[in-house]
Amino acid sequence: MAGSYITGLTALCIPHPGRHKPLWHHFGPPDRWQIAGADYPDTSFLFGNRELVDLTETFALWGIEPPLCVSASYERAVFDLLFFYVEKEGRVVPNVQPSDIDDVVDFQIVVDWIKQWEQAGQLQRGQSMRDWLNPKNPWVAMQKDYL
Fold it and tell me: Whole-angstrom Cα distance, residue 74 to residue 12?
């Protein structure tokens, strides 16, 4: 399995090779990063090592030596956010809206994963996870699960 990796909002704030970053925020110091296996669930039981990006060269170019240089792809980071907040916690994702990131993150990939894991019996709130990905109005559709 993958072990620890950078995920969630932190992964969405770090430029990945060949891609624009979805969020303009700075990713902050390593002690504030969202790490799978620490403060976020590790979804390696679903993905294995797929959708992990090695950022060693990126960090070296910036002259920083963080304790961890592996990050979820932007799509896996969004899945991890949805898995943590919607599936596990039963609440909406805070601090980011789908419209903030839909120009960089391929939501169809995330939707396909949700359907795949839902059909395999790994997700109970797949519909709510997909509802959040609706950039028009994610909260209205999701509220039926929370009220």
Answer: 6
Task: Compute how many other C-beta atoms are within 10 angstroms of the C-beta atom of residue 64.
Answer: 11
Give bridge partners of residue 6 from the DSSP assignment. Answer: 35, 71
Task: List, for residues 65-112, the tens digit of each pLDDT value.
Answer: 888 899 999 999 999 999 999 999 999 899 898 989 999 999 999 999
Reported as type and span, the H/E element at residue 136 is none
pLDDT in tens, 103-126: 999 999 999 999 999 999 999 999
For residue 74, give Cα distances in angstroms to 13, 110, 124, 140, 143: 9, 10, 23, 25, 25
**How many whole angstroms separate alpha carbon 144 and alpha carbon 23?**
28
Read off the pTM: 0.88
- CA 70 to each of CA 5, 77, 87: distance values in angstroms, whole numbers, following the listed order: 5, 12, 24
Q: How far apart are CA 64 and CA 67, in angstroms?
A: 10
